[in-house]
Specification:
Order of helices and strands: HHEHEEHHEEHEEHEHEHEHHHHHHH
Largest sheet: 6 strands, mixed, barrel
Helix content: 55-70%
Oligomer: single chain
Strand content: 15-25%
Number of strands: 10
Number of helices: 16
Length: about 450
């Protein structure tokens, strides 16, 4: 079989020279549009989910745990002597592939404003963390105040946006942190006054909603040994490298049993599994939509076979083989899918790159619609519709196009269209020219 004439015939099946009205051509055009429409949400889901998962994972690693996290055991002398703890941190810096080491002293406390109370995680950190820590300097957004003077006044702290909203705190306001200490076997409350030096947000409230940053020396001074915990955040040059477990083993070896050492994938395993399963579920739903759209190609080819029976009979009568006809109709189905992808892919990329503006526009339209509805019902709803709630998602989506995944899925869509095109193509190849001519 000569493949080129077969492909040429298949091309003419999709783009015939005659301009006569044809139901099969309309069905083929509808199938192409269906593929294009189904590709748009598939590309958007891939781009948005990939960007969300990547951005949230980077925040979890950079701001919460580090590439490797070490939690000092309560019974260890490192938990009681901060000098030994600092020496341990300096020894970790000598390990190859370790970029930076950030010691922390954490304590749970009750943050008390003038009228409100809230639980809080006090993170005692080094004074230079907001300047020299790459993740903190790039991912922390300052909403009020400045981080330049952090640590100069030990009684000034940095509070998260959620804590500030709960306690109605603003820049310069005073509040108290209530901790406990054990004396003679009895727990006693201890109050320490602080002033708001800055209000910040990581853009992901699920991890920063309880954070209050205090200079590490001040945290040690007001938090008792039995309530505070010491930990270390270890940043690697590449947290996704294959050397992650090797570095973890070296850190664990240096710890000599005094520190529980875990890497970021172990700490955030539940969250990462949730992100991955949600992403896969969304992609699966979109693939089912593409599958339904691909079935339209099969239906259009069936109609095309019925319309072109006489042409099939003619080319078979002059020597065309069944495989020639099968290849032509199979190529027509694949070509229709490629045209649909060519139409839908650019539109999907445009929508993905402008997803934040589209979401904001949809929120504006929906809220205006609710306000307009209230004019007729008389029921005023003060709550605003928020499509991307910051309590569960990022405040904005840093879109990153996953080129390799999109290309792979496009090939899968083409393969799927080829599969659904096999039955009508084989049926066309089995048409008998004498029967067609006799009936025609």
């Amino acid at each position: 079989m000569n493949l080129l004439p077969s492909l040429s015939f298949g091309f003419r099946l999709v783009f015939p020279k005659s301009n006569k009205n044809s139901s099969a051509r309309k069905s083929m055009l509808g199938a192409i549009l269906c593929i294009a429409v189904s590709i748009v949400p598939l590309v958007c889901v891939l781009s948005v989910s990939e960007s969300l998962v990547s951005a949230m994972t980077q925040r979890l690693i950079g701001l919460s745990s580090g590439s490797i996290h070490g939690l000092v055991r309560k019974s260890s002398p490192l938990a009681k002597d901060y000098g030994q703890f600092e020496e341990y941190c300096r020894s970790i810096e000598e390990i190859p592939d370790v970029q930076a080491v950030w010691p922390e002293v954490n304590v749970w406390a009750l943050a008390a404003g003038k009228n409100y109370r809230s639980g809080a995680l006090v993170r005692g950190v080094r004074e230079d963390i907001f300047k020299n820590n790459e993740a903190f300097s790039s991912m922390i957004e300052v909403l009020q105040g400045s981080l330049e003077d952090f640590g100069k006044n030990p009684k000034e702290c940095v509070v998260s946006q959620v804590i500030a909203e709960k306690l109605d705190l603003h820049l310069g306001d005073s509040f108290r942190l209530v901790t406990t200490s054990s004396q003679d076997g009895n727990l006693r409350p201890k109050m320490t006054g602080f002033k708001v030096g800055a209000v910040v947000s990581s853009g992901y409230q699920e991890i920063d909603s309880l954070w209050i940053f205090v200079p590490i020396g001040e945290t040690i001074s007001f938090a008792s040994e039995d309530t505070r915990t010491s930990s270390v955040l270890i940043d690697l040059k590449d947290p996704f490298s294959s050397n992650l477990y090797a570095v973890q083993q070296q850190v664990d070896k240096i710890a000599k049993g005094h520190v529980v050492v875990e890497n970021w994938s172990e700490i955030h395993a539940t969250r990462l599994e949730r992100y991955t399963s949600t992403k896969l579920l969304l992609v699966l739903i979109m693939l089912l939509v593409v599958l339904i759209a691909s079935v339209n190609i099969s239906s259009a080819l069936v109609m095309l076979v019925m319309e072109r029976k006489k042409e099939i009979a003619i080319i078979k009568s002059v020597g065309a083989s069944p495989s020639f006809v099968v290849a032509a109709f199979l190529f027509a189905g694949i070509l229709s899918c490629v045209l649909g992808i060519a139409l839908g892919l650019p539109l999907g990329l445009v929508v993905s790159l402008n997803i934040n503006q589209i979401i904001n526009a949809l929120e504006f339209v929906l809220n205006k619609g609710m306000s307009f509805r209230s004019l007729f019902t008389g029921q005023w709803n003060q709550d605003q519709i928020v499509l991307m709630d910051k309590a569960y998602y990022l405040s904005s989506i840093p879109v990153r196009i996953p080129v390799e995944q999109i290309v792979f899925l496009c090939f899968c869509v083409i393969l799927l269209s080829a599969i659904v095109s096999i039955i009508p193509s084989v049926k066309a190849g089995k048409e008998k020219p004498l029967d067609i001519i006799r009936k025609g």
